Amino acid sequence: MITASITLIAQAAPLLIAACAALVSEYIGLLNVGIEGLMLLSAFTGIGGILLAESFGGLIPGIAVSLVLGAGLSIFITYLTVYRKANIYILGLAVNLTAAGFVSVLSTRLFGNRSIVALPPELLLQPQSVKTVSAALAVLTSLGLALFCRYTKTGLRIKILGKDSAFLDSIGVHTARLKIAAMGMSGAAAALAGCLLSLQLGAFVPNQSAGKGWIALVLAYAGGRSVIGTTCAALLFVYLENTIAAAQIGMEHPALLIGLPFVLGLFLIIAEKLIVRIWKHYRVK
Is domain 1-248 given the CATH code 1.10.3470 in the classification? Predict the structure, then answer.
């Protein structure tokens, strides 16, 4: 039971961490639409950084480059949004649309290959180590975000920033800087999720994010703006994916089940909203 739980958390780690990134951006009222592109860029820079920084330790410098890239790009986008009145949704879509082409060009320049960039055997981590680290990072990210938003002054301010920025302005909080800092956190978390995608496989492959950034945005919404709800939604989604993947074995038309997790996810979102609305209605009475 414990082993199965750790395996599920490890498999869900990239999606769960990306959902936490989406949740932070949702708190401040500036949804990080570019999570999909950030995950793809970081999946590449994680592997590429390890290969290029092999003589400096490989793993840590590679991940550090990805985190700095994700945080820096998110901070830049937020700066343009807050101070230059740019549209954050258009900027996020631009990141998503250009990420694949940018990675392809960079991969060709650095490694002479624009398809698969794999780690050599001597740099590969043991599968059990990758599973343990992935599960630990998922738990630490989720638990850390929950504690940060509940017990720290900055976390509480981030949590209410999107709902009542006027109140924070009235007590002297520099809301623009707070938005930029929070979006930097979101970008770093998205980058970490992308790194885990490629590290779990031991290689970067084109379109590795495969829509997980978009799913993360939905999970943050489905979780009801809470870390616990978002975590449960991510774990449930991955569990459904695994169950349906197992059910496809031996089927004549397995493709019919591919979209079922998304349909079930949509159903759960609608059901959750209806239950909350009914509960509030009867509580008022």
Answer: yes
